[in-house]
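Quick question: what would this complex look like in 3D?
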Amino acid sequence: EDQVTQSPEALRLQEGESSSLNCSYTVSGLRGLFWYRQDPGKGPEFLFTLYSAGEEKEKERLKATLTKKESFLHITAPKPEDSATYLCAVRSNDYKLSFGAGTTVTVRA
Amino acid sequence: DAGVIQSPRHEVTEMGQEVTLRCKPISGHNSLFWYRQTMMRGLELLIYFNNNVPIDDSGMPEDRFSAKMPNASFSTLKIQPSEPRDSAVYFCASTQRDFYNEQFFGPGTRLTVL
């Protein structure tokens, strides 16, 4: 069964203080690693999909990278509006996503 | 595009009552998913439909749960009878079935069973 472990559980940052979130996974044949952002009271919002080791994707202050065993979400010079829970998920067939528990990021002004 | 629409947004009911959650997927999407999110178990897939046909219901916790998709623009998740342990946020998501496509989530229904 696919397993996804995210660390840390929570991250408190000062505005401008860059950091990274980790997503470790075990999957029988990766068909995509997904990063979602979830704000309180809302559904997850898609950020990135990565398919192969070495792949990188960027969006504003976020950059996702992928190795054969883990993915990192780097937040560069975060702002308070980057505060959210970030969810990692893996797909090992053509439809099922297995989610991690998430990392809750709080950015203080 | 209005995105995935779910109703109601909040539901409070008493144990033993029937609960029906509703979802309208994004127009043109042919795959629909129901998820449940709790603090203890995170986000779990309950059931997956493709072209209105249930493909994988292995995540449905027990026979009290049932889901239907009578047409491409509407799906329901029913719990009968409801129990306090069913309290959670239920999300519906849709996508155009394709190896590469991401799922788009609705705002969720927060269910509280007293």
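Answer marked as accepted. The two ends of chain B are 36 Å apart (CA to CA).
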